[in-house]
Fold this sequence. Notes:
Layout: E1 2-7, E2 14-15, E3 18-19, H1 22-38, H2 48-59, E4 64-72, H3 85-96, E5 107-113, H4 120-140, E6 149-152, H5 158-170, E7 179-182, E8 197-199, H6 201-219, H7 223-232, H8 241-254, H9 258-266, H10 271-275, H11 277-297, H12 307-325, H13 329-352, H14 361-375, H15 395-405, H16 416-432, H17 440-446, H18 452-464, H19 472-500
Parallel strand pairs: 1-4, 1-6, 4-5, 6-7
Antiparallel strand pairs: 2-3, 7-8
Helix pairs in contact: 1-3, 4-5, 6-19, 7-8, 8-9, 9-11, 11-12, 11-19, 12-13, 12-18, 13-15, 13-16
Amino acid sequence: xxxxxxxxxxxxxxxxxxxxxxxxxxxxxxxxxxxxxxxxxxxxxxxxxxxxxxxxxxxxxxxxxxxxxxxxxxxxxxxxxxxxxxxxxxxxxxxxxxxxxxxxxxxxxxxxxxxxxxxxxxxxxxxxxxxxxxxxxxxxxxxxxxxxxxxxxxxxxxxxxxxxxxxxxxxxxxxxxxxxxxxxxxxxxxxxxxxxxxxxxxxxxxxxxxxxxxxxxxxxxxxxxxxxxxxxxxxxxxxxxxxxxxxxxxxxxxxxxxxxxxxxxxxxxxxxxxxxxxxxxxxxxxxxxxxxxxxxxxxxxxxxxxxxxxxxxxxxxxxxxxxxxxxxxxxxxxxxxxxxxxxxxxxxxxxxxxxxxxxxxxxxxxxxxxxxxxxxxxxxxxxxxxxxxxxxxxxxxxxxxxxxxxxxxxxxxxxxxxxxxxxxxxxxxxxxxxxxxxxxxxxxxxxxxxxxxxxxxxxxxxxxxxxxxxxxxxxxxxxxxxxxxxxxxxxxxxxxxxxxxxxxxxx
Length: 507
């Protein structure tokens, strides 16, 4: 006697080696009902995963008592094509017609999933609750829980298998000899379905623990460390160049080398990877940042109003958030000052209106001097840059221009943010010359009534019309982690199958 738990996927019921199209599924269902009523055998669908489980049980001479299946039945018309409740009904009819497990006649139990089968968090808790219900039902029916208990992690979404695996592993009532199984695909389409194989859950779960660590590393943007971990655990192979290129691109982006990051992304050839939403977002966003750098270097009028320039400023804000979260306060204030000076420069050059060549100190000096003379900005007459004492403008040069252009600008010389930044930057300079560093308390005291995030967001919105909602890297990281989880679990399963077939043991 044995019990089997499994998730149902959208390809678990097939015809001619492929999933039955949505528009044909109703007719197929009616044919199966007619076969049941008329004791005929006209419609013969294929059940690759169920068949592989049946072969495994037969090889062990075990009789299937209970088949417990999870299927999706979500609310809303948009989910109909991806839901699997019809597949559950196909399996139910096939068992009733003895087209599946014909010598067993197992009792079939179905458990629906109504929401978010792709959410790891939701599925983690959903399967915990479902397992409690299943154990209660089996106990009430006086089912022997010491019989072989197989858990298939082949069908369904990765999140569903993640939830099922963890829930079963955490269920104390189940015997220690519970076994997780996986259904390999045939080597060729015309080959028969091979039997399911047993996998080591410890290896599967160790991937989840590793991915948990990856999430923390992603939050700190430690892409190089993620790559080293993958290599040290021998989870990257030569064919995994896609993941390597993507991590390299993220590292280059972190270091502001947007053109090289785009080159790395262009080297990715994996068609499935390039279809992923996170890849597209990363590519488009990094390309926008690269174009922003190019525009910043050009002699372009109204540079300030280019969306690529706004995107550069937003990226710098999110970098500040990251440095602050990592408690790298000296680096944080240095980057803050760099951002402030860039905002000043953009605002000042835009106000001058002549788009001078910023790389030519002579042209830039003449453009500023001419503008100051026309507008009567006396404070610039004695400016070190205008007087030729400095090769390029300083922050104070641009502050004078912005203050003359817009006396109430949040970037002006006497603006609250400028005064606070001046104070904290001076404090930082004093500390580092004594081998010291800024503390969070100093920053909080300086921005006493409002935190720095609120003030900077307000400035970016007022002066540059930036809309800061969520760091785009959050979505990119989450999507890539989802991809990695699926790939690494597949890697563990394929290794177990290799061992099952007599290959070498894992290193």
